[in-house]
Amino acid sequence: KNEVEQSPQNLTAQEGEFITINCSYSVGISALHWLQQHPGGGIVSLFMLSSGKKKHGRLIATINIQEKHSSLHITASHPRDSAVYICAVKGDSNYQLIWGAGTKLIIKP
Amino acid sequence: KAGVTQTPRYLIKTRGQQVTLSCSPISGHRSVSWYQQTPGQGLQFLFEYFSETQRNKGNFPGRFSGRQFSNSRSEMNVSTLELGDSALYLCASSLAWDRVVRNTEAFFGQGTRLTVV
Question: What tens digit of pLDDT does each residue of B82-98 get?
Answer without folding.
Answer: 999 999 999 999 887 66
